[in-house]
Amino acid sequence: MTTPPTLGIGLVGYAFMGKAHSNAFKKIPYLLNQPPAIPLLLGIAGRDPAKVQEAAGRYGYQHAYTDWREMLADERIQLFDNGAANNAHAKPCIAAAQAGKHLLCEKPLARSAAEAQTMLEAAQKAGVKHMTAFNYRFVPAIRQAYQLIQSGKLGKIYHFRATYLQESSVSYNQRPFTWRADKEQAGSGAIGDLGTHIIDLARFLVGNVTTVSALTRTFIPQRPNPQTGLAVKVTVDDAFAALIEFENGAMGTLEATRSAAGNLNNQSIEINAENGSLRFNLERLNELEVYWCDSEPRETRGWSQISVTERYHPWMENWWPHGHIIGWEHTFVHEIAHLLDCIVNDKNVAPLGATFEDGYQANLIADAIQTSAETRHQVDVPA
Amino acid sequence: MTTPPTLGIGLVGYAFMGKAHSNAFKKIPYLLNQPPAIPLLLGIAGRDPAKVQEAAGRYGYQHAYTDWREMLADERIQLFDNGAANNAHAKPCIAAAQAGKHLLCEKPLARSAAEAQTMLEAAQKAGVKHMTAFNYRFVPAIRQAYQLIQSGKLGKIYHFRATYLQESSVSYNQRPFTWRADKEQAGSGAIGDLGTHIIDLARFLVGNVTTVSALTRTFIPQRPNPQTGLAVKVTVDDAFAALIEFENGAMGTLEATRSAAGNLNNQSIEINAENGSLRFNLERLNELEVYWCDSEPRETRGWSQISVTERYHPWMENWWPHGHIIGWEHTFVHEIAHLLDCIVNDKNVAPLGATFEDGYQANLIADAIQTSAETRHQVDVPA
Amino acid sequence: MTTPPTLGIGLVGYAFMGKAHSNAFKKIPYLLNQPPAIPLLLGIAGRDPAKVQEAAGRYGYQHAYTDWREMLADERIQLFDNGAANNAHAKPCIAAAQAGKHLLCEKPLARSAAEAQTMLEAAQKAGVKHMTAFNYRFVPAIRQAYQLIQSGKLGKIYHFRATYLQESSVSYNQRPFTWRADKEQAGSGAIGDLGTHIIDLARFLVGNVTTVSALTRTFIPQRPNPQTGLAVKVTVDDAFAALIEFENGAMGTLEATRSAAGNLNNQSIEINAENGSLRFNLERLNELEVYWCDSEPRETRGWSQISVTERYHPWMENWWPHGHIIGWEHTFVHEIAHLLDCIVNDKNVAPLGATFEDGYQANLIADAIQTSAETRHQVDVPA
Amino acid sequence: MTTPPTLGIGLVGYAFMGKAHSNAFKKIPYLLNQPPAIPLLLGIAGRDPAKVQEAAGRYGYQHAYTDWREMLADERIQLFDNGAANNAHAKPCIAAAQAGKHLLCEKPLARSAAEAQTMLEAAQKAGVKHMTAFNYRFVPAIRQAYQLIQSGKLGKIYHFRATYLQESSVSYNQRPFTWRADKEQAGSGAIGDLGTHIIDLARFLVGNVTTVSALTRTFIPQRPNPQTGLAVKVTVDDAFAALIEFENGAMGTLEATRSAAGNLNNQSIEINAENGSLRFNLERLNELEVYWCDSEPRETRGWSQISVTERYHPWMENWWPHGHIIGWEHTFVHEIAHLLDCIVNDKNVAPLGATFEDGYQANLIADAIQTSAETRHQVDVPA
C-alpha cells in the first residue's frame, strides 16, 4: 500500500459511541487494503475525569480533556468527532467548525431541525467536510441495495417499509429515567434515536420525502430516577409510526419503538419495485434478500438469500473470505474510512455518506412526525 | 361419533371461493372427529350455465341455478353461502335472510359500510345466524394467538403490525382490467380484498379501532381490457397503508398491496405486548413465533418457533400427526364447521367467528381509510 | 372435464394411513382439474369390528370387513390398497395380486428384502400395476427437484444428504411398546419407518446405491407395555446413520431417528451438484431452495427461496392461487391420482412413482444398513 | 481496569491467519473490559521478504524475518504463534518449545497424528502452555451450548450431527492446484482443513470418540497449476463423511466438503439429547437454537431462536449492546485472550481451549477417517 497521510482526531464521548468510533480509528490503518489516512488519536473529551482518563489510556489518545473547548485548541486536530448526548451536539460542532475542523457528529444531528440548521450553516460557512453518523448507510448489504437501485435494474419504486424495533422500554423498571427520556436533552425518544436511522435510509435508498402522517405513544408515562427511585415524567415518545410519501411517487411506512419485546435490534427494510424487491434485517446484517421478477428459469424464481460477503460486495475485499461474517462494529470502519477519504482527497461526503444536510433533513422529518401526531393532520415536509 | 344432523346448503359462486367452500363442505363429514352437521349440497348458483353445471357435477350439488333467486326458493336450503363478487353480496344475502336462511358471505361483506349495514340489519331482523368469511380467524396459529392474548398472559398490548402483500398488480399486463379494478363493482381494491382481512384480525386479536390515518396509491392508473386490449381507467387502489389507534391504547399499522413483487400471499402479523410478543406469516401458516420476556433460563430466551401441529393446538386433533402440516384450504373447514355448529346447536358465531357485525365494522374502517387518504386528516371510526 | 372411468377400491387399514388414503380417494374426483378415474369406495377391512364399521360410515365405503380375504372376493374391486402394519403387507398383497387386483402398499414394502421379493414377484407374475406408497415423491417441491436434476441443468451430483428426524421416542414413557418396537412385526424401527422414505428419495433423485456403511442405536432398550406397564424389550433400532455411495459417483449420508427432541417431522434433503444445489424440508413442504452457480447478476447470487405454489409447478394448477399453501395430505392425492392414471390408461408407475421394485430396493438397502451396523464393515448393495 | 502485564509475541505467517491473529492481538488491549495481557508485537516471519515487511508495517510488528529461526532467537518473545501452512507446523513449534516459548498453532495441528505427537511431546517436555487454534470453541453460541451441556440440563446426549460445507472446489478452474491439494504438504484436504474443526467440536461438546466409519471423495482428480495451467494430480480429498461413536453412547455424523455449491462457510452443528436439542450455524454465528422438551406453556413450546448477544452470554459484555452482532474475527479475540490469560496467570488451556493434546486427538480421528475410507471397515480410535 502507498503510505497514507495522517489525520489528527479529537473525540468527544467515551461511552458506547466513543468505543465504536475509537475502534474504527484503530482498525482502519491495519485492516483496510488501502487506508485513506492514518488517524492520530490526539484528544478525547468527556465530563467524568476518571472515565475520560481511562478511555484515553485504553484507546491511546494522547490527551484527555474534561472540556471540549480545550481540546479544540489543539491545532493538530483536523477532525472533530462528536459522540456526545443529543443536547451536546450543536455547540461543540459549531465551535469546531469555526476552528476550521472537519466534523463528524452522531445522530440525530440535533434535537430539532432548527438546531440542526445552525450546525449545517456553521459547517457550510467554514467550508469543512461534515458527516452525520448514519452508519447503516455503510452496511455492505445496504450499500449493495443502494447500488442495485441506482443502477435502475429494479425500476420504479412502489413501496418502502422500515421498522426499527427494540425492547429497552417494555417495562417500568427495565429502563430508568435518563437524559434519553427528557425532551429538553434528547429532543425526542424513539423518533430521534431509532427513527432517524430509518428516515435516513428512506432518503438514501428512495429519495426525498414530501409528506408525513404519524402517531406517537408513550406507553409508560413515568420512569424511576435511578438514584432516588422516584417516578419522573417521561417527556419523549416510546414509539412512533408514520406514513410517508416520496417525491418520486413511492409510498412508505416507518415505525420505531423501544417497546417491542423480543426485538433486540431489529431494523428491517423492505423495498418493492417494478422489477423486483429487496429485504434486509440488521440482526443479520451480512444478508440481503432480493427478488427479481424475471429471473430464469421461472420454476426456481424466488427470494435470493445473499450472503453479502463476497470480494465483489462493497468493502468486503478488505475483510475475510466469503461466509466469514462481519459484525455491527464494521459499519463504523467503513463510515469513518469514507470520511477520511473525503477529507484527505477532497471528495464529497454525499451521496454515499450522510452530511449535516442529511442530518438536517432527518430532523425535519422527525419534527414533522411530532407535528402530525399532535395535529392529527398530514404534514408537508419543507422542500 | 354421534350421528350429526344434516343441513341444507345453497351456494352462490363456482370459482375460487366456490371451490374452497365446497371442499370444506365435503371434508367436514369425514375428517372432523365430531362433525357438527352433515352438509347436504342442495344447490349451486352462478351466471355461466355451463360452468355452474360443471361445478354442480364436480362437487355433487343436486341442482345448478343461473339465478340465485330460484335457488332460494328451495325450502330445504338452510344455509345460504355467498361466494360471489363484491357487488353481488348485499341483494342475495338480504333476500336469503328474508327467506329465513342462515348466512355465510365472503369478504369484504359489502362495497361500503352503508351497504354492509343493510345486510347486517336484514340478518338481525330475520334472527338467522350470519358469518362474514374472515377465514384467517380459523388458522390454528391465529386462534392459538387469540387464546394466548385472551388468557392475559401477554399483558397489555402495545403494538399491532400487519401487512398483506401480494404481487398481482406489479406490471401493466400482469393483471388485466376486471371487476376488481372497478370501484362500482368492487368498492375498493387492495383495501377491501386484502385489507379487510388484516382489519378483521386487528379487531379480533386486539380490539376496537378508534382512529385511522391512511395513504392509498394506484401505481398503474390503467389496465388493459382482456378482450379488446384497450386501456381502461382503474378506479380502485393498488395499495394502502394506515395508522390505527385502538380503544385499549395500543397503536397499529396496516398495509396491503398488490404491487409487492415476490410476495405471493404474504400476510404478516406482529403483536408486541407487556410480557411478550407474537409473529405470524400466512405463507407458513402452521408456524407461530412467540417470545416471553421471562422465559427461563435466560441464556436460552428467544423467539419460540412453534409448529402449531400438536394435538393440543386448536383443531389439530382432527388432522394428522404433529409436523404433518395442513394447508390454506383447511381454514375453511374450521370456519364452516364453526358456523354449522352455531346453527345446529344455536351457539353464537362471535367472538370466535366473524359475524355481519364484524363485516360491517371492517367496512367502516375500510371507508375511513379511503376518507383519510382523501382528506389528509386522521379520521375517527364511528363507535 | 371429460367423464373419467370409475375404479373399484378395497382398502386395508382404518387408522393413520387409512385416513390419508381415504381422503385422497375422496378429493381426487372434485379437486383435480382432470381426475384420471373416479374411485368407488367398495370395501374397507380391519381387525376391530367397531372401528372398521365406523370408518366405513365415515368415509363412505360400501362394506366393512374384518377379514381382508373376504374383501378380496369382491370382484368389483380393482385396486387393493394395503395400509396395514408391516407384518400384514406381504400375505394380503400377494393374495390380491393372485386375484388380479392392482396393488398399492404402504412403506416399508416388507420387513425384509426377502419378504419384499415375494411381493414383487407376485405382482409381476400377475401383471398388475403395483406401487409402494413413498408419498414424498409426490411433494411438488420434490417433483420439481427431480425435474431440475433430470433436465441436466444441475450437472453431475456430488453430494446427497438426508435426515429424517422425529422425537417420538425421546423418553421412556413417551412411546409405549407397540408393534413398531418389535422386530418380528415391524422388521426394523426408524430404518423401515422413516429411513425407507429417504432411501427412496436418494434413489429417486440421485440413482442406484452401491455401498452402505451404517450405525444403529437403541437408546432406550425397554418400553412400557401400555396395558400392564411392564417393561418390554425393544428389538428394533431407535436411530440409524449411514454413508452411501451411488453408482454415478456421488456420495451420500442418511440418518433417521425417533430420538431427536424438537423435530416433529423434520425430513431434510440436500443435493450439491456441479452447477448448483438444492435444499428441502418436509415441515415447509411448499418451499424449495435452489442455488445456481452462474446466476446473474453475481451481486445477488444466493439461495433462491421458492414458493412451489405457482400454476407451473407440479400439480399446483389443481389447487389454489400461488402462496396459498397445500398440506401433507395433498401428497397422497397426487400419488394416488398417478396410480389411478397408470391403471386406467395403462401407463408405467415408474419412474415417477415407486413400484414394488422400488420398495424391494429400499428393503435391500435397509437390510444392508442392519448388516453393516452389525458387522462394522461396508456392505455392497446387491445389483 | 488493572494494568495487565505485557507478553512478547512472535508470529509466523502474514496471510489469512496472520491477519486474523494480528487483529486479535491488537484488539485485546482496548476492547476487552479486563485484558489479561498486553501483547507486544515483536516479530513476524514469512518467506516473501516484501510481504512480510508489508505485514510488519501494517500490523506494527517490530521486526520482520524471513526465517523463523532468527525470530526465535529474540528472547523477549514469550508466545510463538504459528499460522503457517500445515507442513510448517511441527518443526517451528518444536523449536519454539525447546526455546521455552508458549505455543499457539493453527489447525490441523499436523499432517498426521504421528507428526502431531512429536509436537505434543515437545510442548509437554518444555512445560509451556500450548493451544491448537480451534477458534470455534470461542464462538459465544458454542460456548453457551457447552455450558448448557455441562450443566446437565440437556441430559444424556443421543445425537451429534455436524457438517462443514464450502464451495471452493466445485469446478476445475475455480480452485487451482496449491499446497492444499498436495498430501505431502497438507496431509489431507477437507478432512484436515474443515473436518478437524467439527471433529474438535464433537470432542468439546460431546466427548471422546471411539470408532469411525468413513467415505472420502476427490470429485475432480486434477487441478490446473496456477502458473503453467497444466493439470496436476490432486492427492487429497475434496470431501469426507463419517459415522462416529462416542464413549458416552452417543452416535454422530460428520461431513466436510469443498464441493457444496452455495455453501460459503456453512458449518452446522446439531445435538439431540434426552431433555432438549441444540442447533447452530456458523454463517449466523450470533444465533443459537435450543429446544426444551418441558418448556411451558406447552402451546408455545418450540425452538427458541436465541440472539447470543446479551451481556450475560459468554464474552458479550465486552462488546456492544444486545442485537449488535459480532463477526467471525471476534472468535480469535476470545481465543487468544484465553491463551494469554492461561499464560500470565498459569491457568489450564483445557478444557475451554484446545491444547496440542486436543490437536493430536483430532489428527488421530482424521487419520482414522482416511484409514476407514481405504479399508471399508470401521476403525477404532486409539484410546
The gist of it:
The structure is a homotetramer of 383-residue chains. Chain A is an alpha/beta fold and 383 residues long.
Distance N terminus to C terminus of chain A? Answer: 44 Å
Q: Helical region count of chain A? A: 10
CATH hierarchy, class of the largest domain in chain A: Alpha Beta
Q: Order of SSEs of chain A, N→C? A: EHEHEHEHEHEHEHHEEEEEEEEEHHE
Gyration radius of chain A, rounded: 21 Å
- Give the beta-strand count of chain A: 17
Question: What is the 3D shape of chain A?
Answer: globular
Largest sheet of chain A: 9 strands, mixed
Most extensive interface: C-D, 44 and 43 residues
| Content of β-strand of chain A | 15-25%
- What proportion of the residues of chain A is helical, as a percent range? 25-40%
CATH superfamily of the largest domain in chain A: Dihydrodipicolinate Reductase, domain 2
Task: Tell me which oligomeric state these chains represent.
Answer: homotetramer
Mean pLDDT of chain A: 97
Strand order of the largest sheet of chain A: 16-15-14-13-7-12-11-8-17
CATH topology of the largest domain in chain A: Dihydrodipicolinate Reductase, domain 2
CATH architecture of the largest domain in chain A: 2-Layer Sandwich
Structural class of chain A: alpha/beta
Low-confidence segments of chain A, given as residue ranges, are none
Q: How many structural domains of chain A? A: 2
